[in-house]
């Protein structure tokens, strides 16, 4: 940790004075700090966890999927789909790759443009901490926040580690997922305290749970997976349809998971059905050799794993083998409809959908339109990425935007 200047005294109380205080030593907060520090702004990062970047260390199964080379604004959910454009253009996946290469961190592309560290996510965290040290950034962990006020010129932070006065405050406290790793609603509370609206939050990139009937029909097949195309039902008045995801779906003992389901979960609204094409781009039952259950099973086994094929046929064999019923069966196969009972919640969610309303933030700097000097970056903002390195790319990009302004 870099030492700060000797604290000033006010009424016998030591007050640390900095240019920029950053709440949250995660991906977005550390990236913002690197950029404020490089600009010569005295920067202090505060975190209640005992160490910085805990979520980075568990990300990507311990190897951190640190960006996605195909990231565009279309890969993000927000009430304002245009908001992320400026930040994502300012700091691109190529910029992140250049940083990783400058630190000689070995990495590889796994699939669909997803870049992972070869060795461990520790490499990525060490990169951020080294850059912070070079930029003279002070990081104070194990520090909880007691109150924050603003006097028109400065923010005053009362913390468990003492009083802090800062010209700018960057809130980078992340979302609500994985509370046992230290996620808290502090960022949303600060936003509301200063008059900001919050777009309702919900778990995203999260496994979904079955209603009792589906649980009885499918949950004993837990562990089986198959490639599907996952769809939501378009909401009324929705101008741009939600994306569809062609990836693996996994049956769990409580419901559905796997990349296709995690992706679609971020778009799913409680009570709504989801539809899964179980044989993308293939015709299954229209080309049957014979019109009987044996031939149907043989055809379905051509596209689904054995036990899943048997169950699907057992549950869907038609009463008659007319052209109309076969056409209906084919359609059913391409739109297996499941209405989830819910999600596995923040305990299992990779991200939080919703957050600080972007309408009250400047998209080029992440600065509040209501309070000068107040910034929100990373997951606390109502910008949520798809699975596959997009959420870190948003954390880096929004962190850089704020870091170049605060
Ligand atoms: P982040 O959560 O990283 O940091 C917030 C910081 O604020 C934390 O250090 C926390 O301790 C601190 N904080 C919170 N409340 C506080 C309080 N009250 N007082 C003080 N400090 C407080 N994304 C991706 O792109 N690729 C991947 O491989 C993965 N993998 C992955 C795995 C798992 C298991 C999860 C849960 C998530 C991912 N993600 C991911 C998502 C990604 O980790 C996430 O979007 C970013 O870490 C968000 O960065 P932030 O800096 O906004 O929040």
TrEMBL record:
Its cofactor is FAD. Keywords: FAD, Flavoprotein, Membrane, Transmembrane, Transmembrane helix. Residues 202-351 form the RsdA/BaiN/AoA(So)-like insert domain. It holds the Pfam family HI0933_like. InterPro entries: BaiN-like, BaiN-like_dom_sf, FAD/NAD-bd_sf, RsdA/BaiN/AoA(So)-like_dom, RsdA/BaiN/AoA(So)_Rossmann. Gene3D superfamilies: FAD/NAD(P)-binding domain, HI0933 insert domain-like, Translation factors. Residues 19-404 form the RsdA/BaiN/AoA(So)-like Rossmann fold-like domain. The chain crosses the membrane at residues 12-34. The keyword Transmembrane helix applies. The keyword Cytoplasm does not apply. This is Flavoprotein, HI0933 family. It comes from Granulicella pectinivorans.
